[in-house]
Amino acid sequence: MRAMRMLLAAAFLLASGISSVPVWVVQTSGIDTNLRGVSVVNFRDPIGAPVPVVCAYGSNGVILRSINAGKDWTRLRVVGGETLDFRSLQALDDQTAYVMSSGEGEKSRIYKTTDGGQNWTLQFTGSRPAFFLDAMVCDSPKHCLALSDPVDGRFVIISTYDGEKWLPLDQLAMPLALKDEGAFAASGTCLALYGNNIYFVTGGPAARLFHSPNLGRQWSAIPLPIASGNPAAGAFSVARRGRNLVVVGGDYKNPDQRERVAAYSHDVGRTWKLATQSPAGYRSAVAWLDDHTIATAGPSGEEISTDGGVHWKPNSNLNLNAIAALSRHDAWAVGASGTIGRFSLAAQ
Question: Mean pLDDT across the stretch 3-31?
């Protein structure tokens, strides 16, 4: 199966005239679950060499972990979370990680492990029916944020500063939502943290970028040129590198519609333009692979951009949901039917 996928990817590249571009090569597939997110972090082995810890996760409480670059995968089990839909996992090293589930009310939870996933402690459970976690980000073992859809007309972000207790940011400072506006948990990447800057993107009646320059004390709302106007459309994923931001999305119920599915900003998010050459349809995830290369993924295929999101070129045709990357050499993606892929030159 893996060899066939590689041949199909190579044939696709040759037909597209871009055979020099790396592709997503399937590492494993066939698991009876829809993988919705992936996390990768480096740790040092006994001789000091960097080794990626990769976690893939999704529906039915599934978390898969590899500590040998995808050669072998171990199923991690969260007691009490066997039926949950995991949408964000933040691994901080080979022992410490947080995992977040999405769902209404008490189905939205956050667990933490400090022993490489052998045991998980429940740290947070949603208590109101309107509460719905969409994404989580961490920049240290003790500091993390998680975004919920609006409650009482305002978006909600909960945070931990000690790695143990989760509390909401000042709700009166949080931005007001439009009627029926919300974030999308499709890949767990609608929320981003860059220094003291918090970003999240939304959809529904409008596609907007919300930005706080001071960890949630003040907010601005910036309209995005991404498709919107119905509950299935909007901005799904945001990523920043230096002064450059990129957003992807579209309409997940009309996944082949390619108009207004990717936008970019080269002035730290103040102004936005649609991609000149767009991805070939709805895209649920976007990630920087290095200072010049961005990857995006969705149900109908994947693209890369080497100019800050202005032009996107196809490079794979897999059904993928999410991307995580440390570099072009440690970039991973996951999708339907338990598919796990790695960015590679091997298919050329």
Answer: 58
